[in-house]
Design a protein that fits this description.
The chain contains eleven helices and eleven strands. By secondary structure, the chain is an alpha/beta fold. The longest helix is centred in the middle third of the chain and has 23 residues. The protein has a five-stranded mixed sheet with strand order 5-6-7-9-8, covered by helices on one side. Helix 1 crosses helix 2, helix 1 crosses helix 4 and helix 8 crosses helix 9. The protein has two domains: 77 residues, no CATH class; 301 residues, 4-Layer Sandwich (Purple Acid Phosphatase, chain A, domain 2). Strand 6, helix 10 and strand 7 form a beta-alpha-beta unit. The radius of gyration is 25 Å and the shape is globular.
Length: 406
């Protein structure tokens, strides 16, 4: 009997809230209740013929349920896993916020109407420690730690040069530098164990120094740096990628924690390191979802990765819309191909073309990382591939040529 009364009370509460706020979504947001939960209760109210009431019983019920929900969230937040807690203590970063947080204020403030916006330099798929042998891929690429260091610096310097074209004074509010996973090569395949120049831990420690130098240069150049981070599939220390504790079994995640500790006293640099596979953030009112991209599988020789990427993006949009976490553009790496669409940005790689791509007959692509601007009014405007090393001079110097029919 008590359960039935509670069900009627919740249904009446839902009817009143939806009537008051106009839609289920607005009512759920105002009451702090999951949209699906309130929607089911409202549907039940309609089914049994309940009408809106004028007393405040529904508001009291909503407040009581919201308090119960918040108490439950607090209990869950306090139940930190023993393993993660030990890791965090070991790196001296236990007090840093690891869950999704609000973006820094400078990404929300419009500096001046003529400003081109906030630049984003997307870094992912560095594969630090891996070796690519030119003799095995027709001589079209070579990669090792020495080359990786040179390419990473060249990538940042080139991005700065491109941004100077748009604003010679580099009068930007700051720069967003997402770290999208596969930062190290890892030991996930036997061939990598046999051929990597550096193992997972040495590669992570070596890369920490180069990323630290890059972020310091970014802070000195742009004033502020926002660094959202997600793990990839190559940095894992498990046989297969885990759904549970994905980040806590990844050297990518550990690298991000070391970086956050390094910049703990530098207020110019702020990190977003969620425990899940996705990181959500905003630049102005434009909403991004950062993920690595290894969740999307398939593709063929005609459309390449577009099929699984677009299907995966649609699934994420559907999921996120149900939990009021909609986004405008998804950004990911993993596929080592630079692709830009209105709702999707896919990053290239620092490593470039390798033996796997060559033997699989994948299209050739030079080492590339993605650069774009987010404007406070127009959203994403300027987009450009940032080539990670200097390209060969063109054979023809003519600025335009054509064949004239006689």
């Amino acid at each position: 009997m008590a359960n039935k009364l509670m069900s009627l009370e919740l249904s009446q509460r839902a009817m009143n809230l939806v009537t008051k706020h106009g839609t289920v979504t607005k009512a759920a947001r105002a009451a702090g209740i999951a949209r699906k939960t309130l929607g089911d209760q409202y549907a039940s109210a309609v089914q049994v013929g309940l009408k809106p009431t004028t007393d405040n019983t529904d508001e009291l019920t909503a407040l009581r349920l919201k308090a119960q929900r918040l108490e439950g969230e607090l209990r869950r937040a306090q139940e930190v896993s023993a393993g993660a807690e030990q890791v965090l203590r070991a790196i001296g970063n236990i007090d840093r916020q690891l869950a999704e947080t609000a973006p820094p204020t400078w990404t929300q403030q419009i500096s001046k109407p003529s400003a081109p916006g906030v630049p984003t330099l997307f870094l992912s798929d560095l594969h630090w420690g891996e070796v690519v042998y030119p003799a095995q891929i027709g001589g079209v690429n070579q990669f090792n730690v020495t080359i990786a260091k040179r390419r990473l610096k060249y990538t940042f310097d080139t991005a700065v040069s491109l941004l100077k074209i748009l604003d010679s004074k580099l009068d930007y509010p700051g720069i967003v530098i997402p770290l999208g996973g596969d930062m190290i090569s890892g030991n996930i395949h036997d061939e990598l164990v046999a051929t990597n120049e550096l193992g997972s831990i040495p590669a992570m420690l070596d890369l920490h120094g180069d990323i630290t130098a890059l972020l310091k240069s970014a802070a000195n150049t742009f004033g502020h740096v926002f660094v959202p981070c997600v793990s990839g599939n190559h940095g894992r220390d498990t046989r297969k990628i885990w759904s549970k504790d994905r980040h806590h079994t990844s050297f990518d995640w550990l690298l991000y924690q070391f970086l956050a500790k390094t910049f703990a006293d530098d207020k110019r640099v702020q990190f977003l390191i969620p425990d899940g596979p996705d990181a959500s953030y905003r630049v102005y009112d434009y909403r991004y979802l950062l993920t690595h991209g290894d969740q999307f599988r398939g593709g063929d020789g005609i459309i390449g990765p577009l099929g699984p990427l677009i299907r995966g993006d649609q699934r994420k949009r559907t999921r996120n819309s149900q939990i009021d976490q909609d986004y405008d553009t998804m950004i990911c790496g993993h596929w080592h191909q630079y692709i830009t669409l209105r709702r999707l940005i896919v990053n290239g790689s620092l490593k470039g073309y390798d033996e796997y791509a060559y033997s699989s007959n994948f299209p050739f692509e030079i080492p590339t990382q993605a650069l774009w601007l987010t404007h406070p009014v127009h959203g994403i405007t300027f987009r450009a591939p940032v080539y990670c090393e200097k390209q060969k001079e063109p054979l023809s110097k003519a600025w335009v040529s054509f064949r004239e029919d006689k």
